[in-house]
Amino acid sequence: MKLQGWQCSGWLLIVAALLPAAAIAQSEEFTLSDDREWSLTDAPEPGTDEARIAEARKYLADGRASRARQILAKFIEENESLKENPWLPAAYRLRGDALVALGHEYRALYDYEEVAIEYPGSEEFRIAVEREVDIAKQYIGGLKVRFLGIRIADGGEIAVELLIRAQERLPGSDVGEDAMITLANYYFDRNKMALASEAYDLYLINYPNGPNHIEARRLRIFAEVLGFKGPEYSTTGMINARIQTRDFIRRFGEEVYDETINEEFLEQIDESLAARQLKSAEWYMGQRDSVSARFTLERLIADYPDSAAAARARDIMEARKWEPVVGVGSAPIEQEEDSEDS
């Protein structure tokens, strides 16, 4: 029975899990003999390109990243001008892995980008993109970028660029999904709510039933609410949040217990929207535009009858002896909800 490299047995899988990712793929074949002993039966011919790459892999597996980098750097220098050597993608990717192991992840990005740009059809392409996502997560997690040998520079902008590239390069994949939700959460954690809301929207368009779709819907609501600056500003985000909240409760009310997104939360959103309408009515009154003020107050009462702002609106209309105008009703918010397609 013959098995390739790290696929050869259960115990080798365990060992491989403990090794650096670059050490997993080997260029050697092992055979299981009748006495249950594994023996090397096929190895690359010494001196060949395959053997040099295999040697570098072995040094990486042994924790000798510096030596692996030297071998790979020499190999790349000898072959990079033609770009036709089939082992070049592996050499670039492995050198990137060696640089990461040596603590030079930013320099490793140049090698991973070489693979992503020049060798998109190679087996190393996906691995290189995954490596870039891993580095982006490290920067998001607080790892500083080296500047003059010292880790002092923030890597947030680099992480954003890497995550966007990963989505573009592997759309619809688990790597792209991971990059997309990581980017959306990054914006949310950095209080960039407009960008977070947009990122969660894009996630739900591309992965409507993805592994993070419920959390994406939940955080998108919070992003809209937290992005609301007050009754003096646009309520578009709050209207979106209202629609999304009702949709969330309808879809997951029984399936997902959430002590924050519930009917009470929806009432708080309505209070904010009502306060915005009251502010508008007060502005009209300040402009001596009684017709617009009266219309806005009546609209407020119809839209949010149980809100504190509606109670204030009734007091204003009573004080000014404004009778309700027949035909003035609520805005078609329910119709807006029907447009929710995610």
What do these coordinates show?
It is a single chain. By secondary structure, this protein is mainly α. Among the domains are: 1-102, no CATH class; 228-342, no CATH class. 62% of the residues lie in helices and 6% in strands. The protein contains 15 helices and five strands. The strands form two sheets. A three-stranded antiparallel beta sheet has the order 1-2-3, with no helix packed on it. A hairpin with a 5-residue loop joins strand 2 (29-32) and strand 3 (38-42). Helix 4 packs parallel to helix 6 (124-140), helix 7 (156-169) runs antiparallel to helix 8 and helix 12 (263-286) packs antiparallel against helix 13. The two termini are 51 Å apart.
Describe the structure concisely.
The chain has 342 residues and is mainly alpha-helical. Helices cover 62% and strands 6% of the residues.
Q: What fraction strand?
A: 5-15%
Largest sheet: 3 strands, antiparallel
Proportion in helices: 55-70%
Which term fits the overall shape? elongated
Mean pLDDT: 84
Number of strands: 5
Strand order, main sheet: write it out: 1-2-3
Straight-line distance between termini = 51 Å
Question: Helices and strands, in N-to-C order?
Answer: EHEEHHHHHEEHHHHHHHHH
Radius of gyration: 30 Å
The low-confidence runs, each spanning 5 or more residues with pLDDT under 50, are 1-27, 330-342
